[in-house]
Amino acid sequence: MTMSLPADLWPEVKPDAARRLMYAAVESFARVGFHGTTTRDIATAAGMSPAALYVHFSSKAALLFAISRDGHQQTLEMVQRVAGTDGAPVDRMRLLVERFVEWHARRHVVARVVQYELEALPADEYAVVAALRRRIEQFVQSLIADGVKDGSFTVPDEKIAARAVLSLGIDVARWYSERARKTPKALGREYATLVLRMLGSSAR
Amino acid sequence: MTMSLPADLWPEVKPDAARRLMYAAVESFARVGFHGTTTRDIATAAGMSPAALYVHFSSKAALLFAISRDGHQQTLEMVQRVAGTDGAPVDRMRLLVERFVEWHARRHVVARVVQYELEALPADEYAVVAALRRRIEQFVQSLIADGVKDGSFTVPDEKIAARAVLSLGIDVARWYSERARKTPKALGREYATLVLRMLGSSAR
Asked: Searching chain A, which residue's CA lies closest to the CA of residue B112?
């Protein structure tokens, strides 16, 4: 697995030690999974003692939760910003897919953890993240509904179509690496075209 | 995670003890990941001693390889059977997506392991599985090329389009569970329609 974490992840997390622990955790979770990682592994990779880790995070699960919640919140804010404007549904959908795909390509290591380690979250933390996911899906679904209403989209099932739109973007995190032929931006544009076709739009 | 393994997995694997170990392994890999599983966990779940496990598989990685190779071979055979016939590209693609999606929904626990634990394979075993994956991608890509040639598909980039077709199906393994509103078969049909649209087909 190519491990490459953008330098600008979590600029808002303070102090530096906490951010360093999140970097170390995400790297190890992506490589050997949540259950294959110990808090000692994370502390060591961040150049700290296990005791110093507990100053910032109460457990390995608390680290996973911080990473997962942040990833979902960023995505929700982006989706809300794009889907919630009053532009034409086709334009909003194009922008949404471009940004969503670009995010999953550029941050593919983080996105893998965010998407594939969900089941490792304790029940209460899982519920918080599941609620964020539902809101993301709802925004996409209601954007599709807007397009169906104004005649720019036709889909057999709006819920399944929303699922497929998000699915295409999420799966980018699984296969994307720095060796991919397309930049995250170019891939986003290409996928936006595919999605608009999938939604039965003639604006392609 | 809903653990439900179809009873008819690996009918060709003999003896029963080896098949039982594969069931136990896939269940644990899907639940806590390859790195979160020990050979002792697998042996215990299969009602055997660790020593008895080694009679059938030389290592935990050998179990993962058996599961992964079998999943990829089944998929390749299906893709080859459907894509390699001389029907119209639209009909072949519809059938391919229906079967591919149905496989990933019905066997979602196995498919998760097959798709998401790839990086845990040792280099030689990884190479075998990667070669099977490339052949699957090539069949899909050349089916798209057939459709472009006879005018039934139009895509900006055949390689990216093939990736997107497979991506949609693979991601089903991530989100599908027995609680999903659609049966594997119904989901396959719905996704086939979405894919044909994505490929610019008018036959939808």
From this structure: A116
